DNA sequence: GTAATTTCTTAACATAGGTGAATGTCCAGG
DNA sequence: CCTGGACATTCACCTATGTTAAGAAATTAC
């Protein structure tokens, strides 16, 4: 199952990596399984790990003043997830990360992440590219969120992430899109009627 | 004026850098001035440069199907701006970048950026941290956009970026916040009445 | 298998924010 | 100094989405 990680690194870098380089990653990380509804990261606590999902599903979210959950990111197999600002700055996490299914992940501690980058500068590059990709998709998302209607955003979401639709509860998708679950229900109904 | 760049790098890294390292940056980049309303990046074209603003102001935006401009990012002195996905991937830019004032910037070509990272791995780290910071603020922005009302978002914007309010036209701030310029006008009036 | 809980749907009503049009203000260029 | 264009404001009206509440459906726990 761990070969998924190697493939992820090589695909991101656009080149194969030597065995010793990958072995170093394995030596500095470890695999762990979690039950459904387990908190990987808790808001306000320090977030020590970055998670690469081998199996399962989880999501990060933030709770606003009114106490509403707002999904920020989803992660299935082959995705990385963490509290981006907390992990890198060692400050308190802004978001929660919680499993949606029984989940197995590779955990990389911040210290080991830094060690890894020192040992193999190619890992510095790997994480840089990972973040570039992340950044691009976030900009795209912001642009769409600010300028398109909810129905369009939902269609775009199903087009880009068809796997998510199957495995993630609808009320979380609604909050990811910035709308109420009832509104998403209504939108789905309208779209279904139109296409029939 | 170029010392602003050095300070930016050192502040981001959290450590001073040796002279030869900074000189290498100077050797691989160049300074250029632009008039107001000049396009630094054009959507659909390849974006070769990353810009560090020494003086002036510019913004990136995207145009949706209806032909509406949507501000994505603003940049004043001491800010970096580019088309994040186009610059790194060599693919076509998604966004425009345009000056709002006469602007002087340091231009770093993608090839030289890569050279720089090869010559000094600390630059790899610098750009990684730059992106981490960028990523954190984008996540924060998404979370707020999806869960807070426009009036709150505007107040948050003025709190975080008071300098922007002075120098950036209101209709662009409105589009950055995801609302119509008339709505921002209304919001400002309501806030002014409340506080008096 | 049944009860308890969580998620989804529907409907009626409320409201934030969009739209279009008119007017005002401020510059920059001739 | 005048004029055209860009930006900001206001208003009246409209629509997408939020809200509240209820019940249906699906999932989980015992």
Please give a structural write-up:
The structure is a homodimer of 196-residue chains. With 196 residues, chain A is an alpha+beta fold. Chain A is built from nine helices and eight strands. Chain A has helices at residues 3-13, 19-28, 84-89, 110-119, 121-147, 150-160, 162-167, 170-177, 181-195, and strands at residues 29-34, 39-41, 49-55, 58-63, 69-75, 80-81, 96-99, 103-109. The first copy, chain A, has a four-stranded antiparallel beta sheet with strand order 1-8-3-6. Chain A has a four-stranded antiparallel beta sheet with strand order 2-7-4-5. The longest helix of chain A has 27 residues, at 121-147. At the A-B interface, strand 5, helix 3, helix 5 and helix 8 of A face strand 5, helix 3, helix 5 and helix 8 of B. Chain A binds a DNA duplex (30 and 30 nucleotides) through residues 149-151, 169-171, 179-189.
Please summarize what this structure is:
2 copies of one chain form a homodimer. Chain A is an alpha+beta fold and 196 residues long. Chain A contains 9 helices and 8 strands.
Topology summary:
The structure is a homodimer of 196-residue chains.
Chain A: H1 3-13, H2 19-28, E1 29-34, E2 39-41, E3 49-55, E4 58-63, E5 69-75, E6 80-81, H3 84-89, E7 96-99, E8 103-109, H4 110-119, H5 121-147, H6 150-160, H7 162-167, H8 170-177, H9 181-195
Antiparallel strand pairs in A: 1-8, 2-7, 3-6, 3-8, 4-5, 4-7
Helix pairs in contact in A: 4-5, 8-9
The structure holds a DNA duplex (30 and 30 nucleotides).
